[in-house]
Each structure stands twice: as structure tokens, then as C-alpha cells.
Design brief:
This protein is an alpha+beta fold. Strand 4 and strand 5 form a beta hairpin. The protein has a six-stranded mixed beta sheet. The protein starts with a helix and ends with a strand. The chain contains four helices and six strands; from the N terminus they run αββαβββααβ. The protein has one domain (2-108): Beta Polymerase, domain 2 (2-Layer Sandwich). Helix 1 (2-17) runs antiparallel to helix 2 (47-64).
Length: 119
């Protein structure tokens, strides 16, 4: 479990390193039949910022947690990029796309933790 927490910490550092906003960690461990244990959800304000956040997360998790994503999907249009780290799924959205899909409410049974923005 500590490896997962360390991974989430490094993912969060990667997001904050590129000024990603509205970081929410959804703990799905108490919900049965989920595809992972945690969601980390955040947003960037432009396509290029979303791409930069994804690259920053990859760097931080590779160096800090010795972990690489199994898959990354959505980089082509970069409105919603999903990064699969097995136990942790990272979602990097543009603000309007995030609002539209509203993952936090889709997983309303999850325990949600909000990470304050760094300015």
C-alpha cells in the first residue's frame, strides 16, 4: 500500500510542477469491482498544458516512484488524457471536458480528497 501512496505523491508533484489545477484523489478501495484503487483527477488550461502535465507526471513517477504508466490514452487531442498505473488511473482534463464528464460525481461513493492548488 505504501508504494501506491508514494506513487500518488509523485503524480501529485508532477501535476503541481506544471501548475495543474483542481487536483482530486478519489479513493475507490472501499468500492467493489473497480478497475483500480485510486483516481487522480486534475486539469490544465490548454492543450499544451495538459501535455506538459502528462510529461511531468511521467518524469516524477519514473524517478521518484520507479514506476511507468502501462498505457496513456488521449494524447492526440489532449482534451482528456488517461494514464494507467495499474492501481492508479490519472485523468488530466481541459476544464470544460472535465465538467462535462464529471468523474467525481460518477464515483460519488468514493472518498474524495482535494489537494490545494499551488500558485
Amino acid at each position: 500500500m505504501n508504494e501506491t501512496k508514494e506513487l500518488i505523491e509523485k503524480i501529485t508533484e508532477g501535476i503541481q510542477g506544471k501548475k495543474g489545477k483542481n487536483i482530486v484523489i478519489a479513493d475507490l478501495t472501499r468500492i467493489g469491482d473497480t478497475i483500480c484503487k485510486y483516481f487522480v483527477i486534475c486539469q490544465g488550461n490548454s492543450l499544451s498544458q495538459v501535455g506538459a502535465i502528462v510529461e511531468s507526471i511521467k518524469e516524477h513517477t519514473c524517478k521518484g516512484a520507479n514506476s511507468k504508466p502501462i498505457a496513456i490514452d488521449g494524447l492526440r487531442n489532449a482534451e482528456w488524457v488517461a494514464m494507467d498505473y495499474a492501481d492508479v488511473l490519472v485523468h488530466v482534463f481541459l476544464p470544460d471536458v472535465r465538467t462535462y464528464y464529471n468523474l467525481e460525481h460518477l464515483w460519488a461513493d468514493a472518498k474524495l480528497m482535494t489537494i490545494p492548488d499551488i500558485d
